[in-house]
Design a protein that fits this description.
Elements lengths: L3 H4 L11 H19 L2 H20 L2 H7 L5 E4 L2 E4 L3 E4 H11 L16 H6 L6 H29 L4 E3 L4 E3 L6 H13 L2 H13 L8 E3 H19 L2 H14 L13 E3 L4 E3 L6 E3 H4 L3 H11 L3 H15 L11 E3 L5 E2 L3 E2 L6 H13 L5 H17 L1 E3 L6 E3 L1 E3 L2 E3 L1 E3 L5 H10 L4 H19 L9 E4 L9 E2 L12 H13 L2 H17 L27 H15 L11 E3 L5 E3 L6
Antiparallel strand pairs: 1-2, 2-3, 4-5, 6-7, 7-8, 9-10, 10-11, 12-15, 13-14, 15-16, 17-18, 18-19, 20-21
Helix pairs in contact: 7-21, 8-9, 8-10, 8-21, 10-11, 10-13, 11-13, 13-14, 15-16, 17-18, 17-19, 18-19, 19-20, 19-21
Bound molecules: 1-deoxymannojirimycin (DMJ).
The site of 1-deoxymannojirimycin has 8 residues, from helix 21.
Membrane topology: Single-pass type II membrane protein
Enzyme class: hydrolase
Pfam family, one: Glyco_hydro_47
Length: 589
Amino acid sequence: MLPPSRRDFVSLTVSESGSYTNSKQWRRQSCWRKWKRLSRLQRSLILFTLMLLLVCGIATSPTLIRHWRGEMQVRCKNGVCSICSLINFTRKSAFFLSKNYHIQIWRGAVIEEERASDTDTKDTEIQDDPASVALAESRLEAVREAFRHAWKGYKNFAWGHDELKPISKSYGEWFGLGLTLIDALDTMWILGLKEEFAEARQWVAKELSFDKNVDVNLFESTIRILGGLLSTYHLTGDSLFLEKAKDIGSRLMPAFSTASKIPYSDVNIGKGTAHSPQWTSDSTVAEVTSIQLEFRDLSRLTGDPKYKLAVMEVMKRVHKLDGKQDGLVPMFINTNNGLFTHQGIYTLGARADSYYEYLLKQWIQGDKTEKELLDDYLQAVEGVKKNLLKKSTPSGLTFVGELSHGQFSPKMDHLVCFLPGTLALGAHYGLPADHMELAKQLIETCYQMYAQMETGLSPEIAHFNMHEGSTQDVDVKIADRHNLLRPETVESLFYLYRFTKDKKYQQWGWEILQNFNKYTRVPTGGYTSINNVCDPASPIPRDKMESFFLGETLKYFYLLFSDDPNLISLDKYVFNTEAHPLPIWPQAE
Ligand code: DMJ
């Protein structure tokens, strides 16, 4: 074998007398003579064949096809940018062009300003060998196709209503505010589905009214409706969405009129009244602490501090409360006295999950200036490590269990699978490197929650085995076998892929998407949640497509399969807990 230095090139020797140039001229003349000797028919045939080859070559070039379809992307490598590899120019001029000539905004290929550090340059590299580009494009198209299929069902059977019931070809109403349509707006924008977006915008302009005598849940309507409208406004610059966001935002404010400043769970947006559920005066901790990104953004956009003040008061009070264990919070808080209730139970799943997510994300949104939020987040991660992390048998998967009055339970909700993504995001922002290591371990576990099921789809809740001799890591109780098309694992796969570029995360996501297509896709349009992930022969449809399937799950699939780090850059945007990207504030504010 040749030494490395001699392996990768061939040499060409040119004689001193210049005979190489002479022989080239001679060959050119002899070709011309041969050409002239051909009959007119022969020449026409050759020219026709060459033209045909040229046309076929252009038509099958993925780069040019994308160019014609308006999918221009600016690619930057070592300070040099190109649009579809056709034009080369510096990154600065790319930004200039984007501003002045409006080079693509569809497909969300938002062109970012030059970035500060050298290490960041690596992030802007795009894997652009033809095979990777073709694979990525086919997967992105598969997501667009899935969205169109879901949208077809929604449009035909549930247009303007909250949720599609794809099996009965009807709809379900929760707030009566077109929840799926609003949740899906920015997904359509990011996926480049122009026609669908235009139809939906028309509905928002003509039909959407918040002047309705209806009780809505503060948290759900904030993350899905307010969050969806705000992010669509940020992505499109269309003031229609800002006006609607202001309207719903101000109608939700009565929820904060409590003695404790801890908001009620329900608001009547027509009457301007708010209350707790009938059976309790408690609110859920995750709910009152996961509305902050949206209301803070609304204050920034309107210049009216009242929204931000209301939600930050909640954070201040929760920050000071007794009843936490190593930074972990209980699941309920009382709206009369502002104290935690049902103490002693700690989970990263339902009712507490997004409290942890929003500690980190508010700190990021505020450009890393709010120290209390960071302190609480760091303490909570330590609390998770100390109290809730264990390994399963036989594979040694790291999982996050629950604590109930000092007793550990190896129960993990699928909802907990937001955590690897959040930990990875924190590590990206300079938090301890072991957060990233933990993120990698946990995403493996979340993937296994899918891979170890007969359908390849995760149950709502998994119980991990810890006793010696167990032959499988995950047990699923009969009541926990359903799958609601939830996004958390895909969300975390997206973050892990963005930060590590490890292709296995895309591959895992691809398997999951195929299994959604296999077991939850309804032929007449839409996707349905199912009752039994353990039985491929009879997964049993539940006849409901949750709005977050379009708002979150498909959006995160798309972002996962995209190799463009500027497609909703994580240095510019922070996603709310319903996958609606909101801008990170510049330091000066
Ligand atoms: C979504 O509404 C949000 O992601 C929320 O934080 C948790 N539940 C659903 C998705 O599973």
